[in-house]
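Quick illustration, no need to memorize.
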Amino acid sequence: MRTTKSWDGVSYRAVFQTVKDQWVTITIGEDDFVPVFRGRRVINVPEFNFADSRQMGLMLADKTPGAFHLELAEIGLDSQL
């Protein structure tokens, strides 16, 4: 997640696991996000807040070569989390 419209700078990363050939429900809260810059954790930046979100992206970052397929049925924000 990014809190600015810039493509460079601090972003907030939350990690989740998939299960091959299975649909899973993943719930990620604000506390699950850590600030990073080019993949490295940074300090002295504001904590992540969903209300500040301006961009969202997904990245395969396990450094494992090979085919990968991800289907998303829904992305939503539950205001009660």
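The mean pLDDT is 90.
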